[in-house]
Design a protein that fits this description.
By secondary structure, the protein is an alpha+beta fold. It has one domain: Electron Transport, Fmn-binding Protein, Chain A (Pnp Oxidase, Chain A, Roll), CATH 2.30.110. It is 24% helix and 42% strand. It has 4 helices and 9 strands. Strands 1, 2, 3, 4, 5, 6, 7, 8 and 9 form a 9-stranded antiparallel β-sheet that branches. A hairpin with a 2-residue loop joins strand 8 and strand 9. It is elongated, with a radius of gyration of 19 Å.
Length: 170
């Protein structure tokens, strides 16, 4: 998954949390979608500064990004939601993401009920608790591995609306 990225957030306790999400678009930032009520959604609401990491071991390449997260527009979230396969749309309605559940049967029951409810619809309405986020970067670092361990690291830092470029020691 070349678009798989680690998203790191910090919650109210101050502890960092990381998980893999999928990059869906690059515009003025890096866009991904999730449940706003999930742990990551609540953590980003509390602290909008996040980190992203892409790692491609076969290429010996990594990109690290730090930035401030913002929600994408409701229209953009709806358009993307409705472009997803129907099973994925039902999955978003089914799961109370990050909530403790008794067992898997709850999810299976809800999925069956929602599949029946939306049987005659190809696209579902977007749940209000689901949508996109854009990470607006203020730091981007590119890393290229080298056999000598003298890796290349190039850092871009946004300062006063201008990107400053520095080479870092490995």
């Amino acid at each position: 998954e070349p678009n798989a990225m680690n998203l790191a957030t910090v919650g109210k306790s101050g502890a960092p949390t990381g998980r893999i999400v999928l990059l869906k678009e690059v515009d003025s930032g890096f866009v991904f979608y999730t449940n706003y009520q999930s742990d990551k959604g609540q953590e980003m609401e509390h602290n909008p500064i996040v980190a992203l990491t892409f790692f491609w071991p076969e290429l010996e390449r990594q990109v690290r990004i730090q930035g401030e997260v913002e929600k994408v527009s409701e229209a953009t979230s709806t358009a993307y939601f409705q472009s997803r396969p129907k099973a994925s749309q039902i999955g978003a309605w089914t799961s109370p993401q990050s909530s403790i559940i008794k067992d898997r049967s709850l999810l299976e029951q809800r999925e069956a009920e929602l599949s029946k409810k939306f049987a005659n619809q190809d696209t579902l309405p977007k749940p209000k608790q689901w949508g996109g986020y854009r990470v607006k970067p203020f730091y981007i670092e590119f890393w290229q591995g080298r056999p000598s361990r003298l890796h290349d690291r190039i850092a871009y830092t946004l300062t006063n609306n201008s990107w400053k470029i520095n080479r870092l020691a490995p």
